[in-house]
User: What shape does this take?
Amino acid sequence: MTVLCHIDDIDDEQSKGFEVGGDNLFAVKKNGQVFLYRNSCPHLGVELNWQEDKFLDMDGMLIQCSTHGALFLIEDGACVSGPCQGQQLQAVGFGIVDGMISLVD
Assistant: This one.
C-alpha cells in the first residue's frame, strides 16, 4: 500500500494534492470523511487546483476547476456546473488504517 498522509494532515473542508508515481491525485475532507480523486478535469484533462492544495471553491463546499470554473460535488465527483456537466471526476480507491490514508493496490 502507498501511504499518502495521516487523516489529520487534512483539515475539515480542506483539500490536499499528491503525486504518486507520476499520477496526480487529491483528497478532500468533509465532515470527517475523506474523498480521493485523480487531479484531472473531465473536460480538458487539466489539473483542477489553482494553487498548491487548493481544490475547493471559496465556500469550501464544492471542488472547482481552476481553468473553466466547473464545479463538482465533493461526495461523488459529479460535475454540477460548467462545461463538463453530466461527467464526473475519477475516484481513486483508498483505505484508512491507523489514521493513515493509503492507496489500494
User: Anything to note?
Assistant: The mean pLDDT is 95. The beta strands are 2-6, 14-20, 23-30, 33-38, 62-64, 71-73, 79-81, 94-97, 100-103. The radius of gyration is 13 Å. The longest strand covers residues 23-30.
